[in-house]
Amino acid sequence: MTKADELQKIREQLEADYASLPLVTKATDTVPGEGNPNAEIMFIGEAAGRNEALLRRPFVGLAGKLVDKQLEAIGIPRKEVYISNVVKCRPPDNRDPLPEEIAAFAPYLDKEIEVVNPKLIITLGRFSMGKFIPDVKISQIHGRLHKVKFQGQLRFVLPFYHPAAAMRQGKVMEMFVADFQKVPKILAYVKTKEADEAFVDDIKDALL
Ligand code: URA
Fold this sequence. Notes:
Layout lengths: L2 H14 L17 E2 L5 E7 L2 H6 L6 H12 L8 E6 L11 H18 L3 E5 L1 H7 L5 H4 L4 E5 L2 E8 L2 H6 L1 H12 L1 H9 L17
Parallel strand pairs: 2-3, 2-4, 4-6
Antiparallel strand pairs: 1-3, 5-6
This protein binds uracil (URA).
């Protein structure tokens, strides 16, 4: 089975499971991840918003346009990356997802990560960051590469502010744009590293 087939199977499973999932009343309320099955970079956001729920695609509203623009600025077409969310549907009034909602959708996201097997995971906002790097403040670690053990595997994780937060505050936008500019260098760096290298918590800024 190809990676594309495996990702399609995850989407079908998500729809098939709809009745047991929180926030979902019908199969078409689900918003699966999308993108290049062989992506080197996987972005993980929070949850679908209104536009995402309507189109059943992640990051297609204003926040998505900002991500697309920053990707374009660093010469990476959106179709080259994979984009998903911790919660694969829209919470009412776009409220923060609850821990039990994040937990309910985790198996689908975890499987997407396993299948795509990206070289670099970029988290957008504190909920996806918390999946890999708990008990930290995004203001302290955004834009810094972390190497974490996840599902028994070492993964490179780069936490970013959420694009919606960037759109609300000029200072955050500056940091969001600056963090994006680091991506080509960080991707080149992680590609030189072996996956089974000794565990390190945090790679020094000096390397970046
Ligand atoms: N915000 C998110 O976190 N995810 C989306 O898909 C859209 C907006």
